[in-house]
Amino acid sequence: ERAGMATATAGTGTQAMATFRASKIDLIVLDIGMPDMDGLEVCRQIRKTSSIPILFLSARDEEIDRILGLEIGGDDYVTKPFSPRELVARVKTILKRTGTTSTAGRNEQDFTVGELRLESAGRTVTFSGNAVLPTTLEFAILETLMARPGMVFNREQLMVAAYGPGTYVADRTIDSHIRNIRAKLAAVGADSVITTVHGVGFKLRVDTERGH
Q1: Cα separations (Å) of 127 from 57, 61, 143, 210?
Q2: Contact 183, 176 (CB under 8 A)
Q3: No. of helices (H) and no. of strands (E), the chain
Q4: Tens digit of pLDDT for each residue in 158-173?
Q5: Apex CA 67: angle with CA 65 and CA 70, to 5°?
Q6: Is the pLDDT score of 207 beyond 80?
């Protein structure tokens, strides 16, 4: 609130779901350790109907917990103890990606590669007319790959595209985002659209037709 954002709080997973359904929310800061329904399950339930940005808070410092949070649809994570300044910075980064803060000077474009189409302004992705629902950071990564199909991007470049400059996340986090994007594309018939270039990074295939 001191950073100029309106907040709504919930003390349990059930209350969190009720607040989400009843309010217009731009971003959710979700604690993994909550009574009656933990944060991971809340995220799974929300992801059935919404791609709203979700930032996880966790007291668990094991890498597997961080990756698990991202694999079920989280956009980012902060581990406890954390600095409120860091949390606000992460929230602002995600909100910039969703267009809920000032977008002055933002270069909004549409990209079409084969049957895959991305509209930056509307933040929509479709393959052969079928909707794909990436999270905010997944959208930023896919937008970067689609802007230069066939070009190989390393993990650091994708990290900057998703999180902005000056933010460090583990390589495995980027790999987790890529894995999620691939799964969502495969679900609508777009298999093997993103190719791994071993030892370098990832690229978008130019021949993204159905069945490829």
Answers
A1: 33, 37, 14, 8
A2: no
A3: 7, 10
A4: 988 887 776 777 777 8
A5: 110
A6: no
